[in-house]
Design brief:
By secondary structure, this protein is mostly beta strands. The protein has one domain: Ribbon (Umud Fragment, subunit A). Helices cover about 5% and strands about 35% of the residues. The radius of gyration is 13 Å and the shape is globular. The two termini are about 15 Å apart.
Length: about 110
């Protein structure tokens, strides 16, 4: 999983709110292995504003993981309709399996370019 370093500082804080990212804001991405096929080593990327409805397969979406209190950047691999609406399935480029948590409007933060 790719973790964004500024957010990792909040990971141990139980009361840390979900971050608000500004389009064009540079963020640091740490190489944790799950996206190594796309990113190698720490890199800066700019957050891109894109509405949830516009997201498509192949986009690298930023998702807030409430349980881990961190941002995850993984590639969208499928769209799924649920009883709550649209959910997007993601996967780290180097991971063998898809993510168990889906991307929904409530945890979506933006996209980054590879």
């Amino acid at each position: 999983m790719i973790r964004l370093l500024p957010i990792l500082l909040l990971a141990g804080c139980a009361s840390a709110p979900a971050p608000r990212l500004t389009p064009g804001e540079p963020i640091m991405i740490a190489d944790t292995g799950s996206m190594r096929a796309t990113f190698r080593g720490p890199q800066f990327r700019a957050v891109i504003a894109k509405s949830f409805a516009e997201l498509q397969r192949g986009d690298i979406a930023l998702r807030w993981d409430e349980g881990r209190r961190e941002i995850v950047a993984h590639r969208i691999i499928a769209r799924r309709q649920t009883w709550r609406g649209l959910a997007l399935v993601t996967k780290g480029s180097s991971n063998p399996e898809r993510d168990t948590k889906v991307l929904v409007p409530e945890n979506y933060l933006g996209v980054i370019l590879p």
